[in-house]
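Researcher: Please translate sequence to structure tokens.
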Amino acid sequence: MPYIGTSPSSAATATSLTDADDNTKIQVEESSDENIIRFDVAGSEAMRINADGSVNMVLQPSFHAASDAQTNIGYNAYQTLTLNAEDHDVGADMDLSNETFTCPVDGVYMFVLQINWLNTQTGYNYYHTALAVNSGYEHISFIEGSIIGAVTSYTQTGTKILSLSAGDTVKGNMRVDTTGSGSSTVDINSHSRFSGHLLS
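Model: Translation complete:
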């Protein structure tokens, strides 16, 4: 049965609600008069409400990964964004070895994909960004090649909010569509990023 407070005889002086082994609990005063509500789960702090009303959820799944280079982007097929480094990865759910984020829990997730195209060509019909979700694709954005033109660098950024289940996989993808043939000269560089986090 849960134990409430530091003084079982008086709810008015309670400072915590805790389980039998004291590793899952809600504390309203871990130290004297700090005015912070802390939520611990299995021995780790999962959430806190600060004195100013702001909320920290330190275990909320989140990642931010980057690509340092990728060359020879082929025509008319989605290519996975190659990821080489991470700024952060709460929960270690992004696997850099295969550029795949695996959802740890059911929920609504937001993803941001930023592709920096180098050496764009006017003759390419479209530049796409998309997410590979399990075996399908969730389109994010596209722009006509004639609008971009032939420039040294062009950045395309988009977001997607998806309701996903635990075990679903997500990758960042890009695509060049053209009626031409041969190998593309379009590359991406270190300004390309893929990030995501659990909203709810």
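Researcher: Any highlights?
Model: The helical segments are 145-148.
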